[in-house]
Write a structure and sequence with these properties.
With 157 residues, the chain is α/β, with parallel strands linked by helices. The protein contains five helices and five strands. Helix 3 packs across helix 5 and helix 4 crosses helix 5. The longest helix has 20 residues.
Length: 157
């Protein structure tokens, strides 16, 4: 049975997404990218762009489930708040499309993809490349992190 998972790396400026199929014990990358918002737009317009683009991605790829990194506490409170708001928009969008969401800590994602919770971004990107059979590491890092979230969800479900 094939399972399609949407991984999401939420952020106000850049929300990464990655769609991964899992069938017969194999991963297959379907699509990945980043929803980018412009800092010159109003805060509400930026959140609306994340919502509308993610909604279009869900309609196009029809994921069965989703995996997203939990919010970790950053030193910068303003950054943490904007990420939390983007996460709220993502959570709402998934719920409105009836896509079940599970969340994973950064260490769970690193452990699941690389075998060690202390992995750096470069190792995560290399392991995502290997697991998905890609020719190059997925870029930018927000997209790689989203693909890692999808892989983690597959490994945990």
């Amino acid at each position: 049975m094939k399972k399609r998972v949407l991984g999401i790396d939420p952020g106000l400026a850049n929300t990464g997404f990655g769609v991964v199929d899992f069938e017969n014990g194999r991963y297959r990358m379907v699509s990945y990218g980043v929803i980018t918002t412009d800092s010159s737009q109003s805060h509400g317009e930026r959140l609306m762009k994340i919502y509308s683009h993610l909604s279009a991605i869900i309609c196009e790829f029809e994921p069965d489930e989703a995996g997203m990194e939990t919010l970790y506490f950053a030193k910068n409170a303003a950054t943490a708040m904007s990420v939390a708001e983007a996460r709220g928009v993502v959570t709402l969008c998934l719920a409105q499309h009836s896509v079940k969401l599970e969340e994973y800590t950064p260490n769970q994602i690193k452990q699941s993809v690389t075998g060690t919770a202390s992995a750096n971004k470069e190792l995560v990107e290399r392991c995502v490349k290997l697991l998905l059979g890609l020719e190059t590491e997925p870029k930018p890092d927000h997209a790689a992190d989203a693909l890692a979230g999808a892989i983690t969800h597959i490994n945990h479900s």
